[in-house]
Amino acid sequence: MTDFPTSFDREALLKCSRGELFGPGNAQLPAPPMLMMDRITDISGDGGEHGKGHVVAEYDINPDLWFFECHFPGNPIMPGCLGLDGLWQLTGFNLGWRGWKGRGYALGVGEVKLTGMVRPDRKMLKYHVTFTKAVQTRRLTMGVADGIVEADGEVIYQVKDMKVALSEA
Questions:
Q1: Which is the catalytic residue, given 50, 54, 71, 128?
Q2: Contact indicator for 45, 51 with CB cutoff of 8 Å
Q3: Which Gene Ontology MF annotations are present (predicted)?
Q4: Distance in Å from the first CA to the final CA of the chain
Q5: Which of 71, 112, 127, 129 satisfies CB 3.0 to 4.6 Å to 55 for a cystine?
């Protein structure tokens, strides 16, 4: 598939956020504090439930994370949209990992279920992204995937039909 490894530590993810991993103008992760993972433990272009690719990543939770202080004062909870953004980040990362060119853009999500919360006492989030479609044509580069976020082994977020595209324009 590519010459890239199938796992990435935090330093490699920071390299991606600086545009140094896939090259200028290509898939790029956000910089901290918006980088929503600490490591990618497994990635493929042909794995997962549908054989179309997958990503597994982890994010260490500690009480000092920036969002706990402001969301909500006295009742700290990680915003659910940050977990969704982490799933979108990983979907776009997978497209860049495949060697596909262009900058990543979230296009939407079909369904979102939030069934739990991330409070400061949680230890780790685990992301699972499973592609249902990965398309690269002359006019379109896009991934469609389902995702799950677990907090300390408990499923707390589920999404279906996330869409991320790469555009060279």
A1: 71
A2: no
A3: (3R)-hydroxyacyl-[acyl-carrier-protein] dehydratase activity; isomerase activity
A4: 24
A5: 129
111-134 pLDDT, tens digit each: 999 999 999 999 999 999 999 999
Tens of pLDDT, residues 9-46: 999 999 999 999 999 999 999 999 999 999 999 999 99
- Cβ contact 159:144 at 8 Å: no
Assess contact for 124 and 61: CB atoms under 8 A: yes
User: Considering the domain 10-167, what is its CATH architecture?
Assistant: Roll (3.10)
Catalytic site includes residue 71: yes
Q: Using an 8 Å Cβ cutoff, are 116 and 156 in contact? A: yes
The model's pTM = 0.96
Dist. CA 18–CA 72, nearest whole Å: 31
3-class SS of residue 17: helix
pLDDT in tens, 60-97: 999 999 999 999 999 999 999 999 999 999 999 999 99
